[in-house]
TrEMBL record:
It comes from the Bacteria. InterPro entries: DUF2620. Pfam families: DUF2620. This is DUF2620 domain-containing protein.
Length: 118
């Protein structure tokens, strides 16, 4: 499984996910255009994007190319793993959130993805 990270905090998001040491999960720093291509061709499974507010630039290109049904933005809120799990079950694979929430949001998403595949 491959999780791509992008946006302004792409490296920090990747670091937060790698710190979880999720078995069988590869974390790749990317950008939104490359992520859209890889998500549509099966070269990646999930994308986590960041911007200052988590509401616009974190997912703008991906929403336009993949559709709203695949994408969800948390903005500046911090979801629980249960909330992320429900979104995963609903088919969401692309998540956006704000830079100042990376330390809380990225691990919640990472753990929910790992739990969903178990």
């Amino acid at each position: 499984m491959n999780i791509l990270t992008g946006g302004l905090g792409r490296t920090e998001t990747a670091d937060a996910l790698r710190a979880l040491a999720l078995d069988g999960v590869e974390i790749t720093v990317s950008n939104d255009l490359e992520a859209a291509r890889r998500l549509t061709t099966g070269g990646a499974d999930y994308y986590l994007g960041t911007c200052h507010t988590g509401a616009g630039a974190s997912l703008g290109v991906l929403v336009g190319l993949l559709g709203q049904g695949t994408c969800h933005t948390f903005g500046r809120s911090v979801p629980t793993e249960t909330e992320v799990g429900a979104l995963l079950a609903d088919g969401k694979r692309v998540f956006g959130f704000s830079l100042d929430r990376i330390d809380a949001v990225a691990p919640a998403i990472g753990r929910a993805i790992a739990a969903a595949r178990a």
